[in-house]
Specification:
With 247 residues, the protein is an alpha+beta fold. It contains 10 helices and 4 strands, in the order ααααααααβαβββα. The termini are far apart. This is ATP synthase subunit o.
């Protein structure tokens, strides 16, 4: 309880962080190739709830737009996550689909067969074919994680990762979640994920989105160390200046 009480007053900074909005970068130019259905082609503007950057972010955003336009967001999310999980359990079977030395045509054929057997939706199938054509299947795990960020934002969910030295007791976790919920405001559903990292020495590290709120003892120790270094450098410089002006 004491840990949560100490950070309660500081969490107001989250309000300012959450209000900072930015525009989504344009999707990757190759994404449109082979990635469309008749429904997706209809004029319908879809606002992406988060601005994701980089190759994986662009692919995830394109998949989100296609899934929303076809009203298949939950199904596509489930299919993508199922495939990621299957690839981890049968790594040898899926490895060749990620191998760039394998001809693109072979990768595409394999993906089509997998999608047919799994009865994946057209959106998922066409998206995976694009990844196979562009040699991006090896990035599927990362793309899937970015896609989940978008689906969570779509549902008003905010994933908050809390790192501590030991697992938070249930009562502290509940109070922390309530504090975060109050800070993030109505319309947001907080989903707390706990991580244990003894190296932070104590305190908490709270992360959500691209933001990090570091209240760990390790961070404080580093700040104190930097302040000591600056003070030492200042004293040395002052002493040196005094010696140079002495008679």
């Amino acid at each position: 309880m004491a840990t949560v009480s100490r950070i309660r007053s500081s969490l107001s900074v989250f309000n300012k962080i959450l209000r900072s909005n930015s525009q989504l970068s344009p999707p990757h130019p190759q994404l449109s190739k082979g990635f469309s259905t008749s429904s997706v082609q209809k004029e319908q503007k879809v606002k992406v709830p988060l601005a994701l950057f980089g190759g994986s972010g662009n692919y995830a955003s394109a998949l989100y737009i296609a899934a929303v336009k076809t009203n298949a967001l939950e199904k596509v999310e489930s299919e993508i996550l199922d495939l990621v999980e299957a690839s981890k359990k049968a790594d040898t079977y899926f490895q060749f689909t990620k191998d760039l030395s394998v001809p693109a045509e072979t990768r595409v054929k394999a993906i089509n067969e997998i999608c047919t057997q799994a009865k994946f939706s057209d959106v998922t199938k066409h998206f995976l074919v694009v990844l196979a054509e562009n040699g991006r299947l090896r990035n599927l795990d990362t793309i899937a994680k970015r896609f989940v960020e978008l689906t969570m934002a779509h549902k008003g969910e905010v994933k908050v990762t809390v790192t501590s030295v030991i697992p938070l007791p249930p009562e502290e976790e509940r109070e922390l979640k309530e504090t975060l919920q109050e800070t993030l405001g109505q319309g947001k559903k907080v989903k707390v994920e706990q991580k244990v990292d003894p190296s932070i020495l104590g305190g908490l590290v709270v992360e959500f989105g691209q933001k990090v709120f570091d209240m760990s003892i390790k961070s404080r120790a580093r700040q104190m160390e930097r302040q000591d270094d600056l003070a030492l450098a200042y004293n040395l410089e002052r002493d040196s200046a005094g010696c140079s002006t002495a008679p």
